[in-house]
Amino acid sequence: MEFWKLFVVALMPVLKVLLITALGTFLSLDRFDILKETASKNLNTIVFFVFSPALVCSSLAETITSRSIITLWFMPLNVLLTFIIGAALGWLLVKLIKVPYHLQGLALGCCAAGNLGNLPLIIVPAVCKQKGNPFGDLDICHRNGLAYASLSMAIASIYIWSIVYNIVRIYSNKISNEVKVDDSTNITPVCALENGQENISTCYVGPSVSNDKSHADHVKQFGIECTIPNGRGKVPKKERIVKQLKVLAEKINLKVLFAPSTIGAIVGLIIGVVPIFRKLLIVDNAVLGVLQDSIVMVGDAGIPAMTLLVGANLLKGLKGLGKQFPLIVGIIVVRFILLPVIGIGIVKGAIHIGLIHPDPLYQFLLLLQFALPPAVAMSTITQLFGASEGECSVIMLATYSCAAFSLTLWSTFFMWLVL
């Protein structure tokens, strides 16, 4: 197919995304007061807990089978590689331009996590709907494209909330710890044994005091008393292990790791792979087919809602666009130049040695995963920790503005490459 025709096919989905994004920005203006902060948060909550899991679940349930799971095994590895290579390039960027410490977690996260959910769910099915699309029959292309994009979204959700979430958390915790240390430089612990007994230990925490002041005055003015009864302060080994496991579980934060869209993906995969569930929900004239149809209807509302939220969030980045110019340029270079070039080498190499099955649409999505702007979830993560929210909005505005051009060009080249 001629390059110009491929360019037109690639341009139409991006224009659709731009139009809906512009509408979201338009609705969030003060003059209309429709998608202001409260409304955006409420809609974001509905998308997060209802629309996204319904969309992922319905798409995977309809198209994923035990056979297709085997053929699509490379996608989780491909998505993981985008995160690892992006994070490595982000680390080089941080060192090269000497990014301020409080922005390093944000920079690493934006370089590592691409928008592997919203944009593929819009672009890939939309490409199939275009007249003269290079991927064959419209219905088959649309069904497979939606399944591939849904699986991409589910895998990315796991990696974002397990890898990127913890990267931002580590840097935000280090910042808060430094502040705490600065605020408590005069605090020293003072401990004593009461009544000469070894089985009760009383500790007083407060500013250091001179020796001529009594412990009683010290406690009265500054102290916090903590008593450990019936023991010498030694914790049994079994209790220490249990405590360490609890701390590890808190650090992993399973509640965050298993986001609603991830749970939806798991449910969808189970329905698709287990034959009895497919007969009850998916096949023609299924007994519970109305349930699947209802989930599909709810999920279909997710794509426009997600895109409207992108537009509403980008409006926040209009302020201070020039303050982080070197960092913005660096992230654009990483996500729109270096990652796609590396991705071409990885995917074409995997095709050459026979790791990827010969479906041009599947190969197109694997390549596209390397050329996407930062994940919208970065805004949510920075809000959770209250770290660099303004800078994140600026980066989102700049990168998504550039994505309108880069995605069109890369999509055109990728289609030409896989055909």
TrEMBL record:
Membrane topology note: Multi-pass membrane protein
Membrane spanning residue stretches: 6-29, 41-61, 73-94, 106-127, 147-168, 256-277, 297-315, 327-355, 361-385, 397-418
GO CC terms of this entry: endoplasmic reticulum membrane
Leader peptide range in chain numbering: none
Highest taxon of source: Eukaryota
Pfam families in the record: Mem_trans
Major location category of this protein: endoplasmic reticulum
GO terms under biological process: auxin-activated signaling pathway; endoplasmic reticulum to cytosol auxin transport
Keywords attached to this entry: Auxin signaling pathway, Endoplasmic reticulum, Membrane, Transmembrane, Transmembrane helix, Transport
UniProt-annotated location(s): Endoplasmic reticulum membrane
Family: Belongs to the auxin efflux carrier (TC 2.A.69.2) family.
Annotated function: Involved in cellular auxin homeostasis by regulating auxin metabolism. Regulates intracellular auxin accumulation at the endoplasmic reticulum and thus auxin availability for nuclear auxin signaling.
Protein name: protein PIN-LIKES 3-like isoform X1
The species this protein was found in: Cicer arietinum
